[in-house]
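Title: Prediction job returns without error message
Component: structure pipeline
Severity: low
Priority: P3
Assignee: unassigned

Description:
Job completed but the reporter wants confirmation the result is attached to the right record. Sequence as submitted:
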Amino acid sequence: MGELIDLSLVDLSLTLALVAVLCGISAHQRYGLERTLVWAALRCVVQLLAVGYLLKYVFELDRWWLVLLIVGVMAVIAGHTGAGRIELPLPHKRLILTGAVIVATGLTLAVGLGLVVRPETWWEPQYFIPLAGIFLGNTMNAGSLGAERLSAAFRNSRLEVETRLALGQSPRDACHRLRREAFRAALLPTINTMFIIGIVQLPGIMTGQMMAGVDPFLAAKYQIFIMFSWAFATTLSCWMTCEAVWRRHFTWAWQLDEVVNG
């Protein structure tokens, strides 16, 4: 295999032409996305370069408390961002989503690093931070999507839920269909990715490893480990979030909460 080709800032600046083409298409079609695209591109460059320099320092320092601090900040940001995507009013939605993200990611990291990868130290930044970033991002997406779908379903199916309650069903049984559909919708992107990975799509982690000179078969094995761990983390996060959300829609007297359900 050839040596890894370094990319200079000048090389990276050439890719801005691709963003310029997108801006041109938006302007020509009057979509009005030019400013958004430029701002997103600038943020992307600044954020990734800043993270790259920061992680280089963290990797060299190799301190467990610094690794946990970085991952903790990432988890809080993930919970805050994911809760912001839930447009419907939901009490304590940031606390719910942040808790689900932290628990799901933490448990997945414990199993993955402790039983599968087994690095020399459990906090080894080379493994801990990238894996945490993958799991945090995907657990955030699954949790927020499940919460949004479930909250919307309660509003759209209020009469059905109230009828089931009137017939003597418990709150859990009355909203079972809503929970099932929200859960399935939140996990559908993960399941679809598992169906097409390696055939239609080569994931970023595997592609990055191969471009860095890693043997493709070894990269594939790492990707299998990541995908199964990813599926577990997203499922756990979505389940925890949906369990907390449906309870928020009922009062202690087994009635729909007027404040939450509007």
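Comment from assignee: result matches the submitted record. Residues 1-61 form one domain.
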